[in-house]
Amino acid sequence: MTSPTxxxxxxxxxxxxxxTGKVQFSTRKQARVAxxxxxxxxxxxxxxxxxxxxxxxHLPQYVRDGTVGKDDWLAAKSKPARPRRRKKNFTPADLARxxxxxxxxx
Length: 106
Description:
The chain is mostly helical. It has one domain (1-79). The chain has helices spanning 28-37, 61-64, 70-77, 92-105, and strands at 44-47, 54-57. A hairpin with a 6-residue loop joins strand 1 (44-47) and strand 2. The longest helix is centred in the last third of the chain and has 14 residues, at 92-105. The model is unreliable at 11-15 (pLDDT under 50).
Protein backbone atom coordinates (compact mmCIF):
# COMPACT_ATOMS: atom_id res chain seq x y z
CA MET A 1 0.00 0.00 0.00
CA THR A 2 1.28 3.49 -0.80
CA SER A 3 0.72 6.55 1.34
CA PRO A 4 -1.41 9.08 -0.51
CA THR A 5 0.54 12.00 0.95
CA UNK A 6 4.16 10.87 0.61
CA UNK A 7 4.04 8.20 -2.13
CA UNK A 8 6.04 5.86 0.13
CA UNK A 9 5.25 2.19 0.61
CA UNK A 10 3.69 1.70 4.02
CA UNK A 11 2.30 -1.21 5.99
CA UNK A 12 0.52 -3.69 3.74
CA UNK A 13 -3.27 -3.71 3.82
CA UNK A 14 -4.83 -6.33 6.01
CA UNK A 15 -2.35 -5.91 8.87
CA UNK A 16 -4.80 -3.79 10.82
CA UNK A 17 -4.77 -0.13 11.67
CA UNK A 18 -3.09 1.59 14.54
CA UNK A 19 -5.48 2.88 17.21
CA THR A 20 -3.66 6.23 16.96
CA GLY A 21 -4.67 6.57 13.30
CA LYS A 22 -1.08 7.26 12.24
CA VAL A 23 0.53 5.87 9.10
CA GLN A 24 2.39 2.61 9.76
CA PHE A 25 5.88 1.96 8.35
CA SER A 26 7.48 -1.46 8.39
CA THR A 27 11.11 -0.26 8.11
CA ARG A 28 13.11 2.73 9.31
CA LYS A 29 14.14 3.38 5.71
CA GLN A 30 10.50 3.82 4.67
CA ALA A 31 9.91 6.15 7.61
CA ARG A 32 13.03 8.22 6.79
CA VAL A 33 11.92 8.64 3.16
CA ALA A 34 8.46 9.77 4.26
CA UNK A 35 10.01 12.14 6.83
CA UNK A 36 12.22 13.71 4.14
CA UNK A 37 9.16 14.38 1.94
CA UNK A 38 7.16 16.16 4.62
CA UNK A 39 7.40 19.88 5.32
CA UNK A 40 6.05 19.71 8.87
CA UNK A 41 9.33 20.30 10.62
CA UNK A 42 11.38 17.79 12.54
CA UNK A 43 9.60 14.49 13.00
CA UNK A 44 10.79 11.64 15.13
CA UNK A 45 10.66 7.98 14.05
CA UNK A 46 9.43 5.77 16.86
CA UNK A 47 8.01 2.30 17.46
CA UNK A 48 4.40 2.45 18.55
CA UNK A 49 3.56 0.66 21.82
CA UNK A 50 0.01 0.04 20.54
CA UNK A 51 0.64 -1.63 17.18
CA UNK A 52 4.40 -2.32 17.09
CA UNK A 53 4.90 -0.57 13.73
CA UNK A 54 7.00 2.53 13.13
CA UNK A 55 5.37 5.98 13.04
CA UNK A 56 6.42 9.58 12.53
CA UNK A 57 5.63 12.05 15.28
CA HIS A 58 6.76 15.28 16.86
CA LEU A 59 9.13 15.30 19.78
CA PRO A 60 7.57 16.33 23.10
CA GLN A 61 7.23 20.09 23.57
CA TYR A 62 9.83 20.22 26.37
CA VAL A 63 12.41 18.67 24.00
CA ARG A 64 11.53 21.09 21.18
CA ASP A 65 11.80 24.01 23.64
CA GLY A 66 15.27 22.87 24.68
CA THR A 67 14.30 22.23 28.31
CA VAL A 68 15.58 18.67 27.86
CA GLY A 69 18.06 17.62 25.19
CA LYS A 70 16.98 15.03 22.63
CA ASP A 71 19.81 12.67 23.63
CA ASP A 72 18.88 12.95 27.32
CA TRP A 73 15.22 12.32 26.52
CA LEU A 74 16.04 9.26 24.39
CA ALA A 75 18.39 7.89 27.06
CA ALA A 76 15.77 8.28 29.78
CA LYS A 77 13.15 6.67 27.56
CA SER A 78 15.22 3.64 26.55
CA LYS A 79 15.36 0.42 28.49
CA PRO A 80 18.51 -0.24 30.48
CA ALA A 81 20.92 -2.58 28.77
CA ARG A 82 20.78 -6.12 30.05
CA PRO A 83 24.10 -7.73 30.85
CA ARG A 84 25.05 -10.28 28.26
CA ARG A 85 25.16 -13.83 29.49
CA ARG A 86 28.01 -15.99 28.43
CA LYS A 87 26.95 -19.03 26.45
CA LYS A 88 27.93 -22.26 28.09
CA ASN A 89 28.63 -25.26 25.95
CA PHE A 90 27.34 -28.12 28.04
CA THR A 91 27.81 -31.70 26.96
CA PRO A 92 24.94 -34.15 27.49
CA ALA A 93 26.90 -35.62 30.42
CA ASP A 94 27.18 -32.15 32.02
CA LEU A 95 23.44 -31.59 31.67
CA ALA A 96 22.65 -35.00 33.19
CA ARG A 97 24.94 -34.22 36.15
CA UNK A 98 23.24 -30.83 36.71
CA UNK A 99 19.78 -32.39 36.60
CA UNK A 100 20.82 -35.18 38.99
CA UNK A 101 22.33 -32.65 41.43
CA UNK A 102 19.09 -30.66 41.44
CA UNK A 103 17.03 -33.80 42.06
CA UNK A 104 19.35 -34.83 44.90
CA UNK A 105 19.04 -31.39 46.49
CA UNK A 106 15.23 -31.58 46.49
